[in-house]
Design goal:
By secondary structure, the chain is mostly beta strands. It has one helix at 208-213, and strands at 3-5, 17-19, 34-36, 61-63, 76-82, 91-96, 101-105, 115-116, 129-131, 140-142, 162-168, 171-175, 181-185, 189-192, 268-270.
Length: 274
């Protein structure tokens, strides 16, 4: 894992920092595991814009990822580590012994030729998926389920990881990437290791056009809007905009929007850090 700083031969390259892609082993995806990926441009079924600042971007194909890791007890060889335009992490192509191929989110240190397996009675090694009940305490984990059989929904982005803190009865105590400490059922699956491409946070795009390639349109700051368009707009001259809040008037920067009646509040041991 490394990053490269380019020579400033153009204004767009002056501050640009790019990924070294050392871990990537091929640039051609597995044809049987790709699907069309249509863009909405922020429009709903009536063609009305419901999400602003979305549109354009490079054409992509979706890679079908196995988040459930429900092919238990069958070893698989890591065939390649690949780039995925739909996520910040890299993905790994697995060849199972029965001939099936699947993509998974790759972990740091996963090598081509390595064997990974999912199930209950497997070794807690990088890339292996197992229930929280079988993972040793203190282990660094990622691609974590919130409900059994749901598939991984937490700690999936580049460089993300959680930690298994304790177990008590049918619940395990997990420290999540946000800093929140939460109870999760021990029957939920998790993958051993940190998600790959941890240098992603060091990248610098270098120019506005590169953001357009990602499908993001220019964003207008609320402070420069008129009062009719945003609560922070208006005023003579350059007004500060008042208290930070959303377009609908909900305060930002510290205001808690989580419902006090949320039935899952009882599973949160400690709230995330501000």
């Amino acid at each position: 894992m490394s990053v490269r700083k380019l020579k400033p031969i153009t204004p767009g390259q002056r501050f640009r920092v790019v990924n070294g892609f050392d871990a990537i082993t091929t640039d051609k995806p597995e044809k049987s595991l790709i699907a069309p990926h249509k863009k909405s441009g922020g429009r709903n079924s009536q063609g009305k814009m419901t999400m602003r600042y979305i549109g354009g971007g490079h054409k992509k194909k979706y890679r079908i990822i196995d988040f459930k890791r429900n092919k238990t007890g069958i070893p698989a060889e890591v065939k390649s580590i690949e780039y995925d335009p739909n996520r910040t992490a890299f993905i790994a192509l697995l060849n199972y012994q029965d001939g099936e191929k699947r993509y998974i989110v790759a972990q740091n240190g996963l090598q081509v030729g390595q064997t990974v397996v999912s199930g209950e009675n497997v070794a807690p090694e990088i890339g292996n998926a197992m229930p929280l009940s079988q993972i040793p305490l203190g282990t660094i984990i990622s691609c974590l389920e919130l409900r059994p059989g749901q598939g991984a929904i937490m700690a999936r982005s580049a460089g993300a990881f959680a930690q298994l803190m304790a177990r008590d009865g049918k619940f395990a105590t997990i420290k999540l990437p946000s800093g929140e400490i939460r109870l999760i059922l021990v029957t939920c699956m998790a993958t051993i290791g940190v998600v790959s491409n941890s240098d992603h946070q060091l990248l610098v795009s270098g120019k506005a056009g590169r953001t357009r390639w990602l499908g993001r349109r220019p964003r207008t700051r609320p402070v420069v809007m008129n009062p009719v368009d945003h609560p922070m707009g208006g005023g003579e001259g350059r007004a500060s905009g008042g208290h930070p809040r959303s377009r609908k008037g909900i305060p930002a920067k510290g205001y808690r929007t989580r419902s006090k009646k949320n039935p899952t509040n009882k599973y949160i041991v400690e709230r995330r850090k501000k």
